Amino acid sequence: LTRIVIVGFQSAGLTAAAAARLYNREAEITVVERRTYATYHPCGLPFVLGGEVPNIRDLVETTPRLPGVNVRLGVEAKAIDTQEKMLEVQDLRTLQVEKIPYDRLILATGSQALKPPIPGIDLGNVFCLRTVEDGQRILAALSRSRRAVVVGAGPIGVEAASALRERGLEVVLVEMQPAVLPGMLDPDMAAGVAERLAKAGIRVLCSKAVKELRGEGEVSSVVLEGEEIPADLVIMAIGVKPDVELAVKAGLKLGPTRMIAVDDHLRTSDPDIFAIGDCAEARCLITGRPLRSQLATTAIRMGRVAGVNAAGGDEVFEGVLNAVVTMASGLEVASVGLTATAASEAGFETSTARVRCLTKPHYFPGAGPMTIKLVAERKGQRILGGQVIGDGAAGRANLLALAIRKGMTAKELSQIDYCYAPPVSDSIEPLVVAAEALLRRR
Ligand SMILES: Cc1cc2nc3c(=O)[nH]c(=O)nc-3n(C[C@H](O)[C@H](O)[C@H](O)COP(=O)(O)OP(=O)(O)OC[C@H]3O[C@@H](n4cnc5c(N)ncnc54)[C@H](O)[C@@H]3O)c2cc1C
């Protein structure tokens, strides 16, 4: 009988529990989660702020029924005794401490929102957007706020800024890097997104670092280099930090990204302990280098592999391409693999092509622009990455994920089968147009 204990009951932990249960009907599976409610959907939070999801409670699941899985909510893991194979936990209501024996332990402790140590960070009406409680606090502050500043123009910051604008607030979006969505897009593609945000009425400020938040009790302004922006609501969306405390205390190794280091079976430096999701290091499928993925999709894919392996299986987690999609004031923006910037940083000589097409034939109502940028190795033209903006961007990024995973070249991509009907797409698939443009770059 295998005793599997999982710490954390979110995307990664929930999936691992389900996968372990399916693989091994006999295993005894226990999950401990410090939150007092079951799994919730952080990815839906920006859309609650915007009003598209009318009720924040809809983001919280009732405890999913996993037969034979003992889910213990309101219980925090405190320490791991790797010699005795015991997890020390504390019930946060009764404060009772107990030790749970394990044969295999899975750490799915996730991440927490990053708060920069700048003056004024603890003022009222300064929020992060990570938990249901964060969402509730922002919703409560919305009615008494008129001017918002969102710090960080990654996908969460862009979605949050779009949502606040949708609610009628004056919104300034501040980004330290020279362009919005810096991890996802090259600056030439990001310009189109910034344009859309500006059109929606959001003031976008790039290459600006926040120095200080000012106010008496509650925030009243945000200080940047050479500018002070009035604000009665601030959302810090500058990223997340992996929750590795438990792992570090137990002597588990961290990788170069300061996340828990794992092998291709998602085992940590202790072979009976696995780490998955936002707390665990992922590996880029193209460069082979460790990276911070910190996506729900990666957490779920890792959860499946670690769940099976902890239950006695032999699955390999090959790595990630970080396929991402976001909505910027109604504009669908997706990317996968390496941007041209990331590819050259990784030492690739690249050729790129950027094309503009229509999402449907020009005569069909609702036809809109689509921009695609492909990044390929200069020699051989193996596809390394793609960025797609416009309706249907996510589907194209998913197709590119497959192409990259299979090592396809621009030539092969230009020869794929695709479907067409005027209400859905144009007669020549935009990805093929982009691949053909890349072929002409040779
Ligand atoms: C606003 C927002 C929007 C997002 N949008 C997207 C999106 O559109 N697409 C996408 O792919 N990703 C998105 N993400 C990222 C995604 O939500 C995370 O990658 C995902 O939640 C990671 O899941 P996880 O299970 O690894 O970690 P977490 O969700 O961080 O969960 C970890 C859990 O472990 C528990 N825990 C930690 N330590 C202990 C302990 N010692 N004892 C007991 N319990 C513990 C925590 O309470 C927590 O519930 C978004 C994130 C946010 C915040």
Shape: globular
Structure summary, number of beta strands: 25
The N- to C-terminal Cα distance equals 59 Å
Q: Helical stretch count?
A: 11
Please provide a written account of the structure:
The longest helix is centred in the last third of the chain and has 15 residues, at 296-310. 25% of the residues lie in helices and 29% in strands. It contains eleven helices and 25 strands. The protein is globular and about 65 Å long. It has helices spanning 11-23, 45-49, 132-142, 155-166, 187-199, 245-249, 296-310, 340-345, 393-405, 410-414, 430-440; strands at residues 3-7, 28-33, 69-73, 75-81, 86-91, 97-101, 104-107, 111-113, 126-128, 147-151, 170-174, 202-205, 210-216, 218-224, 227-230, 233-236, 240-242, 273-275, 282-283, 290-291, 324-328, 331-337, 350-358, 369-377, 383-389. The model has no long low-confidence stretch (mean pLDDT 96). The strands form seven sheets. Strands 3-2-1-7-18 form a five-stranded parallel beta sheet, with helices on one face. It is an alpha/beta fold and 442 residues long. A hairpin with a 2-residue loop joins strand 14 (218-224) and strand 15. Flavin-adenine dinucleotide is lined by residues 7-8, 10-13, 32-35, 42-43, 45-46, 76-77, 108-111, 129-130, 156, 243, 246, 277-278, 294-297, 299. Flavin-adenine dinucleotide binds next to helix 1, strand 2, helix 2, strand 4 and helix 7.
